[in-house]
TrEMBL record:
Domain of life: Bacteria
Domain Roadblock/LAMTOR2 intervals: 8-96
Organism: Nonomuraea rosea
InterPro entries: Roadblock/LAMTOR2_dom
SMART domains, A to Z: Robl_LC7
Gene3D superfamilies: Dynein light chain 2a, cytoplasmic
Name the record gives this protein: Roadblock/LC7 domain-containing protein
UniProt-listed SUPFAM superfamilies: Roadblock/LC7 domain
Amino acid sequence: MELRKEVLEEMSLLRERTPDVTGSVACTVDGLPIACDLGAEGGEQAAALSAALLAMSRRMLTMTGQGALEETLVSGTAGFVAFYAAGPTIVLTVLAGPGTNVGLLRLEGRKTAAGVAAVAARKH
């Protein structure tokens, strides 16, 4: 099975486990989209921004000695966007609505990122 399809399956499982998730995108650390569950528009832009934010987050942690990246969580007035390193080559970005159980989002986001990383490792 191709990488895109298996990653989309992981993203679908995330939506099943976390009802407040409204979409997600997986991309390479260079910003190239792998799989998108955001609707018809915005996948390429979201992928590029996700890769940039992951790089900045990793750099900040390295600079400040805070360890390895687990996630970056952005909170807005209309919901949340969480970014996860899914292994060394993939970024998983998850969107969630307002009122989201952030603990559940973090738990399930990390689980999905690990699943995506495992899929990528099998494909290489």
